[in-house]
Design brief:
There is one protein chain. About 45% of the residues lie in helices and about 20% in strands. The chain is an alpha/beta fold.
Length: about 325
């Protein structure tokens, strides 16, 4: 390993596309780094294992991957990345010193999007990378649009379902707790009847924005579950932490001071009821049981008078 080019060290600011170069030869790393350092954030991995470890913590926009490396070759690295749901969409370009059609065919079969010869000109290499990063960004944008609730601007039910399935598997592997907070706006049908549906939509938007703003961790998710219901995923969060967050959300929505004359609660403001459930996922449990538990706690909160939180640990 070249001490001047330590693996996994960012070279450029995060505002640029993230490019991961995977190669065990310092000369190849230097040449590629010189090509991209002006307008990409370049990361370096000098082995297949380092590349896989890097992608566990940060997802690059594109990977330039050498084929022949000691230990784990580029084909195996590509295969493993494509088998992982979190990394399967990262475009991978093989950079090779050979010009063998069978080698290229095998690379495309394991999931690479392109092949670049190490002898290609810098302009050609830059053009190829730019094309595939542009395509990925366009695909990411289209996918994002399908995962966003059009009214509130937060995640939709589909995004929630996909994310919960991923976090369930992740927490099961790590033996960590997974918490859900299910939220319902109190007496929302009365709100619509009293103030009109346009005002109801505006209320949903304000409440959604308020709830979403209270989550700072990138792996938490706030989604619209349906109608006036929202749901929050809190990975690696014990019941105590999720309960504290739920109580904070309840106070934050009250602090919006949105009038609700049709509410049965004394302050006649828009309030929320919340149900919290926590579990350490295992093969003996079903993901749906966590949702049912959170929904049950929400029901108990509403039965107890609304504008409050109920919780349970499974």
């Amino acid at each position: 390993m070249n001490s001047a080019l330590p693996p996994l060290i960012p070279i450029l600011p995060t505002t640029r596309p993230n490019l991961l170069i995977v190669d065990d030869q310092p000369l190849n790393i230097r040449l590629l780094n010189q090509i991209f350092q002006s307008d990409h954030e370049v990361f370096i991995a000098t082995s297949g294992n380092e590349a896989l470890d890097f992608c566990k913590t940060q997802l690059p926009d594109l990977i330039l991957l050498d084929i022949i490396m000691p230990g784990m070759d580029g084909y195996e690295v590509c295969r493993r990345l494509k088998q992982n749901a979190l990394t399967s969409d990262i475009p991978i370009i093989f950079v090779t010193g050979h010009n063998d059609p069978l080698e290229e065919e095998r690379g495309l079969e394991v999931g690479a999007v392109d092949f670049i010869s190490k002898s290609a000109s810098p302009k050609v290499i830059r053009a190829r990378v730019k094309t595939h990063i542009t395509l990925k960004h366009q695909t990411d944008l289209l996918r994002t649009l399908t995962l966003i609730d059009s009214l509130t601007g937060i995640a939709n039910r589909r995004h929630f379902d996909e994310t919960l399935a991923l976090e369930w598997r992740h927490c099961m592997r790590e033996n960590r707790p997974l918490s859900l907070i299910m939220i319902d706006i109190d007496f929302f049908k009365r709100y619509n009847d009293h103030y009109g549906h346009q005002a109801g939509d505006a209320c949903l938007q304000r409440v959604a924005t308020c709830i979403n703003s209270e989550f700072a961790r990138s792996h938490d998710l706030v989604a619209r579950y349906g109608g006036e219901e929202f749901i929050c995923i809190l990975p690696a969060t014990q019941l105590e932490g999720a309960l504290a967050k739920a109580n904070h959300l309840q106070l934050a929505v009250r602090a919006l001071q949105i009038p609700h004359k049709a509410s049965d609660l004394q302050e006649h403001l828009v309030t929320i009821s919340l149900g919290v459930a926590t579990v350490i996922p295992s093969t003996e449990l079903k993901l749906s049981e966590l949702i049912v538990a959170a929904d049950r706690m929400l029901y108990l909160a509403k039965e107890a008078g609304r504008g409050q939180v109920k919780s349970a640990s499974m």
